[in-house]
């Protein structure tokens, strides 16, 4: 997906795409989004998922930290909008040492809410694949509907499309399929 559309999604849905610029060691969102043609499908899905995630956060104000798994109230300034370093000290259950030698400190730098987030959005076998860190039946039903719609929508331009074998399975309209070699060359050559 082009940079402008990618940025638009990330800015409009910060809870869902909070890991977009995280490292590849922690998420596959670092690879971005699939073709521009599915932008409307992804936007529509995202606009439905973001309020569900916000409600989850509102209903669960003390979610554990996704960085360190410690409770939110263990983080410095936990009652503020931006809790900081974790202040937890844990007893190491595997240690045979006596206190205080069996304690370990948590070195998490900042609280990151452990709410459902997109972990990968990609194309596979001609369809949209939208993976979440966690979710509910409602979330997965919405994702399944978006996936079904993507299988009938050209991933390049958004026109009605169908599965095409271009040495790789893609969902393309007649025009994009006919011009696939040019489209692919542009993508690879920048």
- Gap between N and C termini, in Å? 12 Å
**Radius of gyration, taken over Cα atoms and rounded to an integer in Å:** 21 Å
Structure classification: alpha+beta
Shape, per Cα inertia axes: elongated
Percent of residues in beta strands?
5-15%
**Pattern of helices and strands:** HHEEEEHEEHH
Biggest pleated-sheet summary = 2 strands, antiparallel
State mean pLDDT (0 to 100 scale).
Answer: 87
Strand neighbour order, sheet with most strands: 1-2
Approximate helicity band: 25-40%
The low-confidence runs, each spanning 5 or more residues with pLDDT under 50, are none
- Record field, number of beta strands: 6
What's the total helix number? 5
In words, what does this structure look like?
The protein has helices spanning 3-12, 39-59, 137-150, 174-178, 180-189; strands at 89-91, 103-105, 118-124, 127-132, 162-165, 169-172. It is of the alpha+beta class. A hairpin with a 2-residue loop joins strand 3 (118-124) and strand 4. Helix 2 (39-59) packs antiparallel against helix 3 (137-150). The protein is elongated, with a radius of gyration of 21 Å.
């Amino acid at each position: 997906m082009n940079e402008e559309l990618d940025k638009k999604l990330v800015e409009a849905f910060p809870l869902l795409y909070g890991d977009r610029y995280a490292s590849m060691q922690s998420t596959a969102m670092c690879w971005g989004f699939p073709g521009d043609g599915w932008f409307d499908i992804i936007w529509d899905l995202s606009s439905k998922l973001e309020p569900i995630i916000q409600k989850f956060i509102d209903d669960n104000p003390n979610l554990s930290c996704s960085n360190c798994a410690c409770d939110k109230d263990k983080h410095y300034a936990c009652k503020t909008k931006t809790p900081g370093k974790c202040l937890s000290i844990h007893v190491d259950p595997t240690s045979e040492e006596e206190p205080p030698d069996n304690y370990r400190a948590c070195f998490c730098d900042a609280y990151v809410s452990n709410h459902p987030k997109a972990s990968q959005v990609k194309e596979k076998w001609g369809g949209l694949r939208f993976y979440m860190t966690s979710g509910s039946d409602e979330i997965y039903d919405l994702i399944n509907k978006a996936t079904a719609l993507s299988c009938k929508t050209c991933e390049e331009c958004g026109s009605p499309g169908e599965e095409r074998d271009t040495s790789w399975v893609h969902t393309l309209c007649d025009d994009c399929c006919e011009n696939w070699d040019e489209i692919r060359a542009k993508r690879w050559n920048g």
